[in-house]
Records
---
Amino acid sequence: MARYAREVAVVAFAQSDHLRRTDELSEVEMVMPVLHQVLAATGLKAGEIGFTCSGSSDYLAGRAFSFTMTLDGVGAWPPISESHVEMDGAWALYEAWVKIQTGEADTALVYSYGKSSPGSVRDVLTRQLDPYYVAPLWPDAVALAALQAQALIDAGETDEAALAAVGARSRDAAVANPHAQLRGPVPQGDYQVRPLRTGDCPPIGDGAAAVVLAAGDLARQLCERPAWITGIDHRIEAHSLGLRDLTDSPSTRLAAGHAGVFEAPVDTAELHAPFSSQEVVLRKALGLTDEVSVNPSGGALAANPMMAAGLIRIGEAAARIHRGASRRAVAHATSGPCLQQNLVAVLEGDAR
């Protein structure tokens, strides 16, 4: 029995070059080339897309309803069916996938973007914390990730040398990724918040990404080797960090179980692990062995455009299937402090 009502696949993926600063570009100017590229890959025009969904953050842009500006890059006239999530684009992809499952669309354009360079992203991210007890203390994302890393070290699950190796491997893998912000040998540097050094933390930068989804036979017409989404699920953990075991991610494990990750081996894993310590947690939650190629694109340690890095993990996994480098891949996206919210998708080269 099929897991879902309709077969849905990623048929195209595009992303920008991820840069430390893009002062000369507006969000619209950053997104438009990516949209044109992903549509060109399918031969579709904007007016032929059944549903459009975007992911971004008004907090990064510093103004309300900022996503409406990027609709100029999509082309909203004649009127289109469109939606937006104040989340990473991976969750916009989930909404688009649901739309196709209901039969209300056969194709979907999903895009996301973020410009972290204009302000202090470490301060901005404190606004997602508990507004009464935690946010007034202004603990930033690096400090919270350091708590998680220290918990892992205290539990004997990793050490600073192992964390450094994760960062080194990720940036070595990024050498083959022309879009990555950091590539090749990158010094571990000084402590940002002990035990995390600069090399354990993601770069701050700007970027955008887009994918096209299509259903059934249409996907086969648009793409020679579609990346079928054979499973997808997302879960959330308690908002309060004091109620969670930071050395584990039960929400990732639960989402993976519902997505079918454990039903067959995977050969590729694109994990949204902005900090080296979070890869340790995700590997355990997903049961990944050393035979699995983890973050062959370099992952979020090589490029971490806010609101797009999770969608890029799905896109990178799909791209490997498109070119025949992977048969069955797992893609992961996260949001919130210390892996609070987690989305897991399974992509396969052949439909079941």
Note: The CA atoms of residues 150 and 195 lie 6 Å apart.
---
Amino acid sequence: MSKKTLAMLLSWTLVLAVILSGCNNAGSGGNGESGGNASGSGADGKVTLKFMHLWPAGSSAQQNKLVNDIIQQYQTDNPNVTIKQEVLENEQYKNKLKILSASNELPDVGVTWAAGFLEPYVKGNLFAPLDDLLNGSLGEKFIAGTTEAYAVEGKTYALPIELNISPIYYNKAIFAKYNLQPPATYDEFLNVLNTLTENGEVPIALGNKDRWTGSLWYMYLANRLGGDALEKAISGSGKFDDPALTQAAAEVQKLVDMNAFNKGFNGLSNDEGKSEFMNEKAAMYLMGTWELPNFTTNPDIPQEFKDKIGFFKFPTMEGGKSDINSWVGGPGVGLFVAQNSKVKDEAQKFVQYFVEKWGESSVTEAGVIPATKVDTAAVQLPQLYIDLLNELNQASSLTLFADVQMKPAAAQAHLDMIQALFGKAVTPEDFVKNHQAAIDKGN
């Protein structure tokens, strides 16, 4: 683990320890898209601000409600401001962002990911620096280490609102039916898979049409086998021909051969794959802690189902170089302000307001782990939430999502290769060769 990663972990550990010590254990258009209204300010002082995000009411109900509450309160506090929302699901959002950036028509405020995803927008002079906000009182609110992933050449171009790790959620009732326990080793995990398949159960819910979902499985296998080999290969300080990275690809295909995943997984979106777990048709689901609301606070999900959900850490592998407290995760999405926004000052004010209000309310109202410090001393939290905060507190390392680490062309190659790997359309050897070729191109 790099010194920078270790420093970030230590900072998060200190702050999360404080958080846990106190625990007992959108606009006037509502949820819909904007009507195409242009942003700007009129002679009468009225300001229209466009905000594009990825929390639809259907799949992200609690986040969507929180966003709308924040927007309504902001408009009440600032009656001259009207905020128009455009709400898209994850993959649609990414595609729309690319289209808008090509014509330099980004929304005034939008959502971005960190590191390699952010970089081309910064290089294209599409995102405005937000260091002025960090240099004020807002800077003190962030958990140390979370904003660095959004910095390019010493300037910060987005402010994070989430901090995530990726557990394997499981249905305790299905496990109990076959006397199964959460596995700690990979051999135990394979035994769980065999027991479930032999009894006609679907072990794992997966929608790999979106590809980053399958990447989570590959990343964990690469981590458990090779430690930081994947991170080194992505950064260029190592190579993709590391045997652990080839073996991880081979393990993915072994899981496919074992019928570990639901039928048709490579043609299903993440939401479609997730529904297999939510409808209790699959026993397990690997996903980030942004899904916590569906298992803790979402009133539309029956409590009977939420009570059945537990989680376990990705198991260790014999002879591997990583321990069970190593997670795939890191800072989640952040907010940017468009460089060419006609209402840039108001957009920055809204970003500061949003980050502060999200941090104050996301824990209790949405069940989301924020990137800002939260005093939860007087707050009753679901046990699942507390347990995952404890795990984040104990993390030995955090590996940032591979497609976020990589530059855009390499990330696209990675995602394409992930789908090909799960579809058995590429060998493990060609999988790593194609990755190395993409990294070598350097774009």
Note: Confidence is low (pLDDT under 50) at residues 1-37.
